[in-house]
Amino acid sequence: MNTVIRDWFLVSVFDASDLIGNVIWGYVVDDSSCRFLKDDFVCTSNIIHINSSNKLITTNSGSLYQTLEKGRCSKIYYEEFELLRIGFSPLHIEALRMSPTLKSH
Question: Which end of the chain is more exposed for a tag (fewer CB within 10 A), N or C?
Fold first, then answer.
């Protein structure tokens, strides 16, 4: 199975100051497994291996993701993780965190 993604983030998930794991969040370009449609967002399971030479990322569930272009890094907290899973981008989560009136629960 191979899913090609664009506009992606390497997201480090923290519980306080402890790293829980890393996931990839991005938009689907192509998915040979037919799990996703083009332009769907995807949030992976925990990353177990990154091959930077061929831009392939393997996750805990055994899925393989190929990344296009250079990705960005982001940090979120465990209590924000569900927002990531339902489609909020790391940038949206950061904006919510910084907003004095909008807070995630």
Answer: C
